[in-house]
């Protein structure tokens, strides 16, 4: 049986997904309504922040600030005051509790839900509400008060707020905050940056704001992605080395699986560090165009890490052995794999509201598998265009040293080619790409601990 909750002049219907105040619907974005329902359902206890994140933000990684923002919005919707709370009380160093004692739980099978009038007036505010909020927004000081002012302006009317904002001193940072806050206010209008007064400055301020807020989370995801790539590279190298060792007529020594596992861990970790940094940055900073940003940032991260790794590797090897070495993979190859990783990850984690995806269980492995397939396809294209990934680069290195026993010709012969040809290059590339994409995505989607104890 469905239930609803009545308290004061409010009524919450979880089944109908609505909050009513004196019979009129109060707009809330879905996650904030989920939070209110969770606090009502567990109103006899203080709900820990970690439990709130796991329940309300189970599919996305956010910072502690997202929860503070949600509670602030709920208090405003309920007419509550954080200094003397009636409904939602903060439990220090723990979480939040719904503290109103007169909650009535009743069957939700009667009385139709009233709908809000589309032009319901805003509560009366002494003086000019727009000017008061704009002064707070432009005045600097407490970031929380500025955020509240930005949300209040959206509630009053986004278009009018932007018109009044104009080119006042500090308008660029204010426009950036209005742009960021629109995601948290139901019915907020658009806040364009391109073509607007000081649009480039506002865009830079917005990027800086989001980077600072998401830095800790993004850093954790980058590190996890690097670890996932290194682990996948080690496994791929060990299995590839074992296959090379057991291939008919192979002169490879018994130590080759361990050697290639070490090489794979280094290459995979470095590549995932670049691509993972790009993907984490895209999720942290970009919300309205998350998919294209993942592809672009992934490509840039992969290209940068590929170029740097190739340059450092060549310098180190040439410095040790004193001669020029054959061509190895570099920036263009990294660019291709990074693009494929970003595309696969974006397709596997579509999010209209942006943010850092955090799939769990089987869904997390599905995301990793889709990213792996995309990277495998990207690797095949890269090798077909003449690029060199880890395996073919290693083969070129082996040819540069007389007597080397780690060439990949035995694997090529197993595929019907006397030496590395189009088929064997494609197969080895797809193998490397699949392992890399799977490890990268599995590490990237590891959900870090965000809530403070």
Short description:
By secondary structure, this protein is an alpha+beta fold. The chain has 14 helices and ten strands.
Question: What is the topological layout?
Answer:
Blueprint lengths: L2 E5 L2 E4 L4 E4 L2 E3 L3 H12 L5 E2 H8 L3 E2 L2 H15 L9 E4 L3 E4 L5 E4 L21 H10 L4 H23 L5 H11 L17 H48 L9 H30 L4 H32 L9 H18 L7 E2 L3 H24 L5 H10 L9 H6 L7 H23 L9
Helix pairs in contact: 1-3, 4-5, 5-6, 6-7, 7-8, 7-14, 8-9, 8-10, 8-14, 9-10, 10-11, 11-14
Structural commentary:
The protein has 453 residues and is α+β, with helices and mostly antiparallel strands. It folds into three domains: 3-107, Arc Repressor Mutant, subunit A, CATH 1.10.10.10; 129-197, no CATH class; 214-444, no CATH class. 60% of the residues lie in helices and 8% in strands. It has helices at 30-41, 49-56, 64-78, 129-138, 143-165, 171-181, 199-246, 256-285, 290-321, 331-348, 361-384, 390-399, 409-414, 422-444, and strands spanning 3-7, 10-13, 18-21, 24-26, 47-48, 60-61, 88-91, 95-98, 104-107, 356-357.
């Amino acid at each position: 049986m469905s239930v609803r909750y009545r308290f004061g002049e409010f009524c919450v219907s979880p089944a109908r997904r609505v909050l009513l105040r004196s019979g009129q619907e109060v707009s809330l974005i879905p996650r904030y309504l989920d939070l209110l329902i969770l606090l009502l359902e567990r109103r006899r206890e203080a709900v820990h922040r970690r439990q709130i994140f796991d329940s309300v933000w189970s599919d996305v990684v956010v910072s502690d600030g997202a929860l503070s923002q949600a509670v602030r919005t709920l208090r405003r919707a309920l007419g509550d005051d954080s200094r003397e709370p009636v409904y939602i009380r903060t439990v220090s160093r723990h979480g939040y509790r719904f503290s109103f004692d007169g909650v009535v739980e009743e069957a939700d099978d009667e009385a139709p839900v009233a709908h809000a009038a589309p032009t319901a007036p805003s509560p009366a505010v002494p003086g000019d509400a727009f000017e008061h909020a704009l002064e707070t927004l432009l005045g600097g000081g407490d970031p929380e008060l500025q955020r509240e002012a930005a949300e209040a302006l959206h509630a009053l009317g986004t278009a009018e707020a932007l018109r009044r904002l104009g080119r006042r001193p500090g308008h660029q940072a204010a426009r950036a905050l209005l742009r960021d806050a629109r995601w948290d206010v139901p019915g907020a209008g658009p806040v364009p940056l391109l073509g607007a007064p000081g649009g480039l400055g506002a865009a830079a301020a917005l990027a800086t704001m989001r980077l600072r807020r998401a830095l800790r989370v993004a850093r954790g995801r980058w590190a996890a992605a690097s670890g996932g790539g290194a682990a996948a590279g080690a496994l791929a190298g060990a299995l590839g080395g074992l296959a090379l060792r057991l291939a008919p007529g192979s002169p490879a020594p018994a130590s080759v699986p361990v050697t290639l596992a070490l090489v794979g861990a280094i290459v995979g970790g470095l590549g995932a560090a670049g691509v993972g940094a790009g993907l984490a940055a895209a999720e942290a900073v970009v919300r309205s165009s998350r998919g294209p940003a993942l592809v672009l940032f992934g490509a840039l991260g992969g290209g940068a890490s590929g170029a740097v790794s190739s340059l450092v590797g060549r310098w180190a090897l040439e410095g040790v052995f004193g001669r020029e070495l054959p061509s190895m993979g570099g920036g263009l190859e990294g660019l291709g794999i990074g693009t494929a990783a970003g595309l696969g990850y974006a397709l596997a984690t579509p999010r209209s509201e942006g943010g850092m995806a955090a799939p769990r269980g089987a869904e997390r492995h599905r995301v990793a598998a889709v990213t792996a397939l995309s990277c495998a396809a990207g690797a095949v294209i890269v090798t077909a265009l003449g690029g060199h990934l880890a395996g073919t680069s290693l083969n070129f290195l082996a040819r540069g040293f007389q007597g080397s026993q780690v060439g990949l010709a035995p694997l090529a012969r197993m595929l019907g080619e006397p030496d590395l040809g189009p088929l064997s290059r494609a197969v080895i590339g797809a193998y490397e790409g699949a392992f890399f994409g799977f490890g990268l995505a599995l590490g990237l989607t590891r959900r870090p601990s965000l809530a403070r104890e």
